Amino acid sequence: MSNYTLPKAFITTVVGSYPKFPEAQEAIEKRKRGLISEEEFRKICRSAIRKVVEDYITAGVDIISDGEQTREDMVVFFVERMRGYEIGDWVRIFDNVYFRKPIVVSKIEYVGPMIIEDWEYARSVSDGRPVKFIITGPYTILDWSFNLYYRDRRELIFDIARALRREIEEAVKRGAKYVQVDEPALSTRPVREEAELLKEALEIMLKGLDCKKIVHICFGRIERILPYILDYPVDQFDLEFKNSNFRLLPYLKEYSYNKELGYGVVDVHSLKVETVEEIKDAVYRLLKLDIIGPEKIYLDPDCGLKRLPREIALEKLKNIVKAARELRREYGYES
Amino acid sequence: MMKIFVLGAYPRSAKTRKAIRDLDEGKISIEEARLAILEDTAYICGVQVGAGLSYVQDPAIENHDIFRPFVESWRGVYADGLLRFFDNNFFYRIPVFVEEPDVQKCVISQRVRILKRIVHYYPIKISVPGPVTFSFMSKTELDRSELAISISRAYVLDSELGDSIPDILQLDEPFLTDPDASPYHVSILEECVKELKRRFSRIIISLYYGVPREDVFKRVIELPVEALTISLVEYPDRALSLLKTVRPESSKICIGVIDARDIKVEEYESVKKLVEKTIECVEGRDLYGISTSCGFELIPLKYAIEKTQILGRYGLRISEEVVKVRG
Ligand SMILES: [Zn+2]
User: Fold this and answer.
1) Which of A25, A172, A182, B241 lies 20 to 30 A from A76 at CA?
2) Is the CA virtual torsion A267, A333, A181, A308 positive or negative?
3) What residues in B contact A189, CB-CB < 8 Å?
4) Ligand 1 centre from A59 Cα, in Å?
5) What is the distance in A from the centroid of ligand 1 to the CA of A230?
6) Cα–Cα distances in angstroms (integers) from residue B254 to residues A83, B179, B205, B250, in the given order
7) Domain topology for A11-16+47-70+114-140+157-330
8) What interface predicted TM-score (ipTM) does this complex get?
9) Contact A94/B64, CB-based, under 8 Å?
10) Rounded CA gap, B144 and B122, in Å?
11) pLDDT tens across B273-317, in order?
């Protein structure tokens, strides 16, 4: 099926989300108000997903995503589609802005496909480029909801992991080669206990699956947990570097990092488009540490691009791709 | 007598959320929005009194975050972009200090005056951002230790200009539970406390969200304040072992035993056990008090109310069953 050949080194990719296209935003609102069915909702969002994929192809990104166009929020989307959750009361995010924080009220169970349809659709229009299967991780889902049912938080996170595993198994069965678990909440509590809890959950979730396994963590004090995550059952960590001015780099050396690395080289919180030179410099800095070679380095943004204007997101991706091409030539992977 | 109190702000009611939204959109006047805030404030004060708490904590309904009322009332500082507030899925606006703060409007004394009108017969506790947390969580080119001291002076000036003093001034210093906080930061706080003591005779220092480093904690307990609060909710084992190692004077320690960031209601026995273990660790006869783990602003109001009542109920029982038996 895949007629796209990945480069041998400096593969370019994305973390997941892309600026929402208006039709997707509108569909999310309508679905929330009960004006359209889940089926209609998905159908409307397809045109948004196709536009995302077109942008990725225009930029030249190797491993792409569906742009998370159907997801209003990275936790609420999933809990609304699993058994065991209730949409809770309003809780503040900032200023006078609130969200309805979900509550676990019964045993967490998998109901049926949540993001598979979006992923499959993206794949059908991707011109053979691999589409990453990107799912919010159990720690983040645990942390961003209340629990009134489980006595033990460990049991809760393991049940979430079991439910998510069902979704991933289905995706792998349908041909997913790259599975990414997003865990932004982990870096907000960068302590050993929490990192080890997630490790157990990831083992439940990913063990024995035949695919490339990736965990994405961003912002916060990642260096504090780095020593405790290195033995996670994954092939690749996808981490934010640019926003924190590559503070994490010396720690990779210190802890002898040797997995593949999704290397965040553009800041998703800044409107300034990083130049090709800046991106290449970031890669030189990583290579100079002499811990992993070009084949293990994947270039991507720090995090999802959803908060950027589309034109800027696209420009940033284009420069990542240009930098990767030049680097491949410099290091003899392409002529 | 063991003290029982809430550590920080309360969430807004639906009515107040809407009023503030309407105010922002120019649909209602500031007086109308203030009325909604005042209603919440009066209701929450009543709940605290009814629960038998030792102090009435300022519900701080108008706060968008702990820094904002001061940032908006002082010259020399403004609120900028959003930044995650410790380990919460909640974001504060980073204060940017371009010069030393200059008090334009009173916050502390204004709050005291309003609360005194609601519960004039009750001790009032106002919590403010600890000067170290305020200074180190802001953006500035100024020297941070000097900034912390000038923040303390601004609090003093606020209280003098407005001619009102809270019965208790609580300094919120969650920054001191961060692994990056060191004895150096406590030495700054020490200077700040000196400044504050000129005006505020009863001060509580509140450490929450995490467990401070041993070297930090050792220095904080030496500060000349009435009490120190530490949360036993997030990492109970670590907090207890810290207490065991450092052995602070127990009558100065208040422990956070009701999780103010979670809606699940604690069982009495587990709270009682935490108190017993603490007393064992510090080898003291009694404690200064028990409290919530932090403020209630990150859970819905109905749960905050329920937990306030539970804190009061459990506190009274513990006073009788644990503290009295030992004392
Ligand atoms: Zn991220």
Assistant:
1) A172
2) positive
3) 87
4) 21
5) 18
6) 40, 21, 10, 8
7) TIM Barrel (3.20.20)
8) 0.94
9) yes
10) 36
11) 999 999 998 877 789 999 999 999 999 999 999 999 999 999 999
